[in-house]
Every structure is written in structure tokens, then in C-alpha cells.
């Protein structure tokens, strides 16, 4: 198979070219949006009425799932088949932990540039402050900065990239990471049942989920119509749990060929199916394209927790999800690290990443 990557050949696993901080560009002021950030072919934002409940992602009550409620499990199945995204309420992560996490991320981005640069990504590292997925000097850039940290298992943490001198940061991430992992574990068990296994089936097959947290900062933008906070992409995870500002919109998901804004619900988590689940479910559950928009008035913070299998695990459609007569195998098996390596060698671009493991293109 031809895995051609624009200028990416010279860049190895996790390599991303250094780019300026957008927060700094905004802080210094500018006459017009720099060329590299103007997305000419961006789909126009679709205007949908946010009060239209038809166009809101489903809401799942975690406390019911955790009690083994069959109707809620059916709702989860529907949400993941039809939308690939849902809001999770009553998830059990304490409000105080959510607030502390948001405050910690906010205080990191408030540091002066030199302070943040101490934790800068290195060229061949996916962790740290900067931006990932930049594989060419010509590639359009996103209107955001981020810091990515591996958090679980704890022995995989690389504290070189953690702002340990920032008061409360490590404690906030520790607590948040632990509580969110409990939510992820329960969801994993529910997905396991939905995919025809017992509650522990996925964990037995694939081991415990790993975790990484990507903290995104979207500065304000005087021309939100020209830029993208994050380009359309799907996540490489098993699933992603997103914590976002309660009062700033930004996330949009592709649903039936339209971009639908996801309105934040205070203290809930937005959860989406990742590529690994799409592959394992043999396409039953979709890892949906999503993007982030910016606005003129308020910077936005979002915190995306990715949970994913171990690098050495092979991922592929589960036997229980393949049926030769009506659901033939749609994806080949691939070692997870090879999948992610391929993903990081490309710019974020829609569904290109799952397409490359598809057996037949539709
Ligand atoms: O900021 C958002 O709403 C989306 C973030 C996201 O998609 C990501 O970090 O993968
Ligand atoms: Fe994402």
C-alpha cells in the first residue's frame, strides 16, 4: 500500500515541525491573519438552531450505566452507532476535580511564553507544549496551542514536560486523571458487552487502557470565519473524554454531512468513539470527524483525555463483530503503535487515518 505523506517521509515517529505560539501572535497584535492560518477551502460553518433537540448529541447517564441499566446501555449503543458522540452526565468525577483541572490548565497557558517553553515538545516527541501533526512547511496551521502529557500508567509519565513548579498543577492532573480513568474503565466494560463479550472481555484481550491528556488553548480570533481552532480529524484513541469550558462554544462534529455545534452542558463530559473502537467494532461504531472553531470574544480551553491500548497490542475487528454474510471484515489487523505512528506522520485530515487500514474503500 502506498503510504505517501506530504513531506512527511523525512519526519519520523511523532515528529512535528516547530510552529509559533498562536497565543503569542494574538498577544503581540497583528494587522491581518497570517497566511498560514487561513483555511481557504474550509466548509462554511453550518448554521443550525442550537435549541433544535434533533441536532444535539445524545445524553447518557453514567450512573445508570454503572448500575447495569439495560435501557441506558441501548442508548449508548444508539449514540455510538448514529452519532459517535454523546454527553455524559452523572459521571462521578467530582465537580471540584473538574474545576481544579480547568484552573490548572488555565494557569499553565497564562504563564509567559518563556515559562511555557521550558516544557516545549521536542522534534521527535509527541509530549510537551507546542503543536503536533505539523509535517510540512506548507501545511495550513490551526489557531491553537496545546500541551500533551502521557498520564497512565504512571510509570510512563515523563515529568520533563510537566510544569511541576506551577502550584497545584500536578495535584490537579493526578486527581483528574485518576477519576477520569474510572469513568473510562466503566465505559470500556460497557463497550465490551456491546461488542458481544463479557464486561472484562476487552481488557482481557487488550490489557488496561493507557491515557494521555491533550490540553488545548484557543485564543480569540478577529476572523473566526477564516481559521480553524483544530482541523477536522478523528481521534486515534479507543475513546476520548472531553472537558470543556461551560460557556464557550467551539466543538463541531460532522453528522449527516453537516457540521453540528456541540453545546457544552455544565459539568458534563463529551465522549467520542475513537479510531481503535471503530476498527474493533468492524465499523459498527464510528469515530466521527470533528473540529474546533474559534470566536472573537473569549479564549477557550478544552481538555481531551484519550484512552488507548498498549503500543504492542494488535487491533482489528473482534471475531464477535464479523459476520461473513452481513458484516464482512472491513479492516485489517494492525499493531497499535504502527497505527499511531502512521497517524502522527500525517497532518490531521478527516478520516484519512482509518481509511488506510480499511480493506475495501467505499
Ligand atoms: O476543543 C475541542 O472541542 C476538540 C479537541 C479535540 O478534538 C482534540 O483535542 O482531539
Ligand atoms: Fe479530537
From TrEMBL:
Protein name stated in the entry: Oxoglutarate/iron-dependent dioxygenase
The entry's keywords: Dioxygenase, Iron, Metal-binding, Oxidoreductase
Highest taxon, organism lineage: Eukaryota
Keyword Metal-binding part of the UniProt annotation: yes
Family membership: Belongs to the iron/ascorbate-dependent oxidoreductase family.
This protein's record includes keyword Magnesium: no
MF (Gene Ontology): dioxygenase activity; metal ion binding
Organism listed in the record: Corchorus olitorius
Gene3D superfamilies, A to Z: B-lactam Antibiotic, Isopenicillin N Synthase, Chain (2.60.120.330)
Residue span, Fe2OG dioxygenase domain: 209-309
UniProt lineage: Eukaryota, Viridiplantae, Streptophyta, Embryophyta, Tracheophyta
Amino acid at each position: 500500500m502506498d503510504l505517501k505523506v506530504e513531506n512527511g517521509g523525512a519526519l519520523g515517529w511523532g515528529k512535528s515541525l516547530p510552529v509559533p505560539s498562536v497565543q503569542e501572535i494574538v498577544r503581540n497584535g497583528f494587522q491581518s491573519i497570517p497566511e498560514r492560518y487561513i483555511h481557504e477551502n474550509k466548509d462554511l460553518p453550518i448554521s443550525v438552531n442550537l435549541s433544535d433537540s434533533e441536532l444535539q448529541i445524545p445524553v447518557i447517564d453514567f450512573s445508570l450505566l454503572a448500575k447495569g441499566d439495560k435501557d441506558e446501555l441501548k442508548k449508548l449503543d444508539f449514540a455510538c452507532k448514529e452519532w459517535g458522540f454523546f454527553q455524559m452526565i452523572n459521571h462521578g468525577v467530582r465537580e471540584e476535580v473538574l474545576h481544579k483541572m480547568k484552573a490548572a490548565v488555565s494557569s499553565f497557558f497564562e504563564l509567559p511564553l518563556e515559562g511555557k517553553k521550558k516544557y516545549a515538545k521536542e522534534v521527535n516527541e509527541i509530549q510537551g507544549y507546542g503543536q503536533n501533526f505539523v509535517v510540512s512547511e506548507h501545511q495550513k496551521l490551526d489557531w491553537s496551542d496545546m500541551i500533551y502529557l502521557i498520564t497512565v500508567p504512571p510509570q510512563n509519565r515523563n515529568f520533563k514536560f510537566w510544569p511541576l513548579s506551577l502550584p497545584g498543577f500536578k495535584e490537579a492532573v493526578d486527581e483528574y486523571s485518576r477519576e477520569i480513568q474510572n469513568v473510562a474503565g466503566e465505559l470500556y466494560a460497557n463497550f465490551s458487552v456491546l461488542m458481544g463479550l463479557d464486561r472484562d472481555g476487552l481488557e482481557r484481550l487488550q490489557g488496561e487502557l493507557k491515557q494521555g491528556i491533550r490540553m488545548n488553548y484557543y485564543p480569540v480570533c478577529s476572523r473566526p470565519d477564516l481559521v480553524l481552532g483544530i482541523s477536522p480529524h478523528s481521534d486515534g484513541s479507543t475513546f476520548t473524554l472531553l472537558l470543556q469550558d461551560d460557556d464557550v462554544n467551539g466543538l463541531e462534529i460532522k453528522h449527516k454531512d453537516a457540521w453540528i455545534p456541540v453545546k457544552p452542558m455544565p459539568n458534563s463530559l463529551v465522549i467520542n468513539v475513537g479510531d481503535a473502537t471503530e476498527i474493533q467494532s468492524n465499523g459498527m461504531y464510528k469515530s466521527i470527524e470533528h473540529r474546533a472553531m474559534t470566536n472573537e470574544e473569549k479564549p477557550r480551553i478544552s481538555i481531551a483525555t484519550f484512552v488507548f491500548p498498549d503500543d504492542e497490542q494488535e487491533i482489528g475487528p473482534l471475531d464477535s463483530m464479523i459476520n461473513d454474510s452481513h458484516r464482512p471484515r472491513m479492516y485489517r489487523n494492525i499493531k497499535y503503535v504502527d497505527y499511531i505512528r502512521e497517524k502522527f506522520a500525517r497532518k490531521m485530515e478527516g478520516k484519512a487515518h482509518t481509511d488506510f487500514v480499511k480493506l475495501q474503500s467505499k
